[in-house]
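pinned: reference chain
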Amino acid sequence: MKPTFNKIWIIIAFVIIGNIILFYFLSRKMEGYVYDTMAEKNDAELQRLLK
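pinned: its structure tokens
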């Protein structure tokens, strides 16, 4: 019983750690995406104002 119990906990730990890493990378990618779109919008506004 104990070995299977330990295996289950190891699997759970890996799943949780994997989700945290995945979420961290996704949030960083989203930040970059949001920043890029904001920069593009600001550039468009500047071009419109300069005309």
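why pinned: DSSP finds one helix and no strands in the chain. The chain has a mean pLDDT of 83.
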